[in-house]
Specification:
Length: 376
């Protein structure tokens, strides 16, 4: 789930008729809205698809800590040198003109008010780099399915424990870009973008809970990692519970970051706790909801950090009341979690954000270090 309502776009972009259809638009296109120091940098990444189709992402990298997340574009047209698209969810449109050399597009972004936006084709020298110090690779986990894997490495000497980070729904492994380097000072740190999101493959199937858990195990095995500690945020708790319940000997421990809710732990008689809302819903989510399992026995050592009561992040009275109702449900589930899993150490961070590793980084690092120091 995205932390802010950023301008992120993911879609199959279809070229319409016109002379420009013969142009190669593939690659990264960069532009910025506004003036420094309040510029919003945008990256349009276009890939050649089947036939006349294009696939692309459009990212506002200064608005969201997850550099890899995306939302759908509703329409893109290219007619001759005319280029444009619209994003209904943001009530925004872009229209521009492709330069004769095919390396820039001058146009206007309209979202409430018109703003000039020029997109320039990036080169290896001018491309905006991800500042987080990780390498990127793609690991095959299933037939025609590759997952984006980020590796922040870690200490080069000694017997170093490995942490495998699993993001929440709608996010990619890049959501951990800020905290991962701090963890990498003491541990090897790897992050996985699940299928259907970001740069990972988006097959039409394979979104059941245990299949997603198997994807994580496939990455662990491909990287020759022995008994890692899995760290999951939000829906990432589902993969943790899938692996921990079926293959407890394959992991040294599990860390749930506001992730030990109904998709990760089933408490009979308690209604599910809804995830914080995201609009629009990412395309794979209906299949993920359909494939959820009921996990009740999770043997490995567990650290579960909850944002309870959570920070609603709003002054709207109705929204705050809704958040308070969710906190009541959440507290009931946390108590059931503690009672059913004596191997779990539960920590409540009052008034933390759902993305507690961002809002309460120092608390999360402290609790994780203490938990990891107790593991065999």
């Amino acid at each position: 789930m995205s932390l802010t309502k950023a301008v992120w776009v993911f879609a199959a972009l279809v070229l319409c008729s016109g002379g420009a259809s013969a142009q190669d638009l593939s690659g990264d296109w960069q532009g910025a809205l506004g003036a420094a120091p309040r510029q919003l940098r945008l990256i349009l990444h276009i890939e050649k698809g089947d036939g006349a189709a294009w696939k692309a992402t459009f990212a506002s990298i200064d608005q969201d800590p997850d550099r890899g997340a995306a939302l759908p574009v509703d329409d893109l047209t290219v007619r001759g040198a005319t280029f444009g698209f619209s994003i209904a969810a943001l009530r925004g449109t872009y229209s521009g003109t492709i330069a004769a050399d095919g390396n820039s597009i001058d146009g206007t972004w309209r979202q409430g008010q018109p703003l000039p936006l020029s997109l320039v084709r990036a080169t290896p020298e001018t491309a905006w780099k991800d500042p987080s110090p990780h390498s990127v690779r793609f690991v095959t986990v299933d037939s025609n399915v590759k997952l984006e894997v980020l590796d922040w490495a870690g200490p080069q000497a000694g017997n170093v424990r490995t942490l495998v980070l699993v993001p929440g729904a709608g996010n990619t492994a890049h959501i951990f870009d800020a905290i991962a380097p701090k963890l990498a000072a003491r541990y090897r740190v790897v992050g996985i973008t699940r299928r259907g999101f970001g740069a990972s493959s988006a097959p039409s199937s394979g979104y059941a809970a245990d299949r997603l858990g198997d994807d994580v195990l496939a990455v662990v095995e491909a990287l020759s990692i022995s008994r890692p500690v899995l760290v999951g945020h939000s829906l990432g708790g589902e993969e943790l519970s899938s692996i921990g319940s079926r293959y407890p000997d394959k992991v040294a421990g599990l860390v749930y970051l506001d992730a030990g809710y109904s998709y990760a732990f089933y408490a009979p008689g308690l209604d599910p706790v809804p995830e914080p809302a995201k609009s629009p819903l990412p395309p794979p989510m209906p299949a993920i909801f359909d494939g959820m399992q009921r996990y009740t026995k999770i043997p490995p050592p567990i650290l579960a950090i909850y944002a309870l009561p959570h920070d609603p992040g709003t002054t709207d009275a109705a929204a705050r009341a809704h958040g308070e109702a969710l906190d009541v449900k959440g507290e009931a589930l946390v108590k059931a979690f503690e009672a059913a899993l004596p191997n779990a150490h539960v920590v409540r961070l009052p008034h933390a954000n759902h993305f507690l590793f961002l809002s309460n980084e120092a608390d999360v690092l402290r609790e994780m270090d203490a938990f990891l120091s107790r593991l065999k």
